[in-house]
Amino acid sequence: MAEAPSQRPIVVLVRPQLGENIGKAARAMRNFGLTEMRLVAPRDGWPNPDAGPSASGADDVLQAAEVYDTTAEAVADCAHIYATTVRKRGVTKPVVTPEQAAQSIRTDAGRSAILFGPERSGLETADVALARAILTVPIDPEFGSLNLAQAVILCAYEWSKGTDLKQPTKEDMLPPAPQEELEGLVSHLEGMLEPKGYFFPEDRAEATRLTLRNVLTKPGWNHLEVRTLRGVLSFLSKPPRKTTKR
């Protein structure tokens, strides 16, 4: 069952600096089914012409983005607020991973928001103080730096695990070829190998045929792939083409 819009977390970018990064964050959101973005005092104003190209088609997220003067105003209607940071900044709050936060967001009543700080400095203590919990990831202590889009995509991906989003590539894949077509491929190749003495010695011929069949049936070829392979075999069985010297 698809998640209701009210169950999806709101992504709140607090004082974002570059329009390009806002666009990349929108793209990361849209990849995993999140559509509601709120901006708190974006440095270069809003709309920002640099955001669109970086969003790579997530224009609906950018067009619907709401702008607020303060973080408190941006999360006023939210019951559950998570502040993304690798530092507690003197605030004592529960610390959760993106996975734990996602689980709570899917089950807790009321709207949820995830706060992401400015690219250069991250969230300030006053922003973190508004949150119910600190959201962080295990990260190399000597290099605890994620860019804005990376942070957004980590959280969005964990939330998406509990939804009915599907692998895009699977929708485009052709179904496996029927057994009849695979048998044709096997017979075609065996027919080319037999006169060449491939199945020798005779006492190993059956085992060799079985191994060959396993190789050809294991990948799960679709009908187009089987036809392509048979075309290759047919081409290889023809005499070499004569080339005309100039």
Automatic annotation (TrEMBL):
Keywords: Cytoplasm, Methyltransferase, S-adenosyl-L-methionine, Transferase, tRNA processing. One of its GO terms (molecular function) is tRNA (cytidine(32)/uridine(32)-2'-O)-methyltransferase activity. It holds the Pfam family SpoU_methylase. It catalyses: uridine(32) in tRNA + S-adenosyl-L-methionine = 2'-O-methyluridine(32) in tRNA + S-adenosyl-L-homocysteine + H(+); cytidine(32) in tRNA + S-adenosyl-L-methionine = 2'-O-methylcytidine(32) in tRNA + S-adenosyl-L-homocysteine + H(+). GO terms for biological process: tRNA nucleoside ribose methylation. One of its GO terms (cellular component) is cytosol. It comes from the Bacteria. PANTHER family: TRNA/RRNA METHYLTRANSFERASE, TRNA_RRNA METHYLTRANSFERASE SPOU TYPE DOMAIN-CONTAINING PROTEIN. Catalyzes the formation of 2'O-methylated cytidine (Cm32) or 2'O-methylated uridine (Um32) at position 32 in tRNA. This is tRNA (cytidine/uridine-2'-O-)-methyltransferase TrmJ.
